[in-house]
Amino acid sequence: MSASPLRPTKTAMLVAQRIVADINERGNVIGDRLPPERVMLEKYEVGRGTLRESLRFLELQGVITLKPGPGGGPVVVQPDATALATSLTLLLQFATAPFRTIAEARLGLEPMMTQLAAERMDEQTLMTLKESVDSMRGNLDNQAVFLEENKRFHDAIAHGSGNAMFGYLVDALLGMLDGSAIGIDYPEVRRAAVHKAHLRIYQTIESRDPAAAAEAMHEHILEYVRYAEKKFPDVLNAPIVWGLT
């Protein structure tokens, strides 16, 4: 009995899955070129339009980049949280969820991540955490540096938790809740308070105290939520919209 023909979109998705499986099987690393189009057309037994749709999908997901010109073609890259942030933003927009949703998610997730980081973080990541704390302290008069270090600090804890999912989730959530982009201002006195909280969190992780680390992070995120509720309630209550973050 012959199989029913697949819809083109479904076929393209299945081909994309096979391409990723082959990347893993071959052991391709970042920068490796995938086989030429003619080879993939023969291997996957699809038309040029379907193959190109599969490759465009993988490019949107950050799995490959399509280099134009002679010697170009699909090249393996390192996926990041951009596609995840976009998908989450669209889901939350259509659920008419406010920005408060993201703040509440961080309040629930980040203490757990910090607890794991106190148990698992390696010395190199711990050094990155200290560098971020020191850089923030030395640049409290510069909001741009403050925001950069704030993200670096939370990213380091998420990835230092030893749980890859937490790392990508925090990358996505921080990208969606960039206070400067959605209208939350950080005067220098507020930056100093954040630095103090970061220093305490770092110290609890350095001393390998999981309970104290989780508590310190919970207090830090809760303080942020309270600050935003007091100073920028309209921002927290505003609906999440793709393209404004």
From TrEMBL:
Q: Can the keyword Transcription regulation be found in this entry's annotation?
A: yes
Record domain HTH gntR-type: where? 9-79
The source's superkingdom equals Bacteria
| Pfam families on file | FCD, GntR
Q: Does the keyword Transcription regulation apply?
A: yes
* Keyword annotations from UniProtKB, A to Z: DNA-binding, Transcription, Transcription regulation
Annotated GO molecular function terms are: DNA binding; DNA-binding transcription factor activity
InterPro entries given in the database record: GntR_C (IPR011711), TF_FadR/GntR_C (IPR008920), Tscrpt_reg_HTH_GntR (IPR000524), WH-like_DNA-bd_sf (IPR036388), WH_DNA-bd_sf (IPR036390)
Can you name this protein?
DNA-binding FadR family transcriptional regulator
From which source organism is this entry? Answer: Nocardioides soli
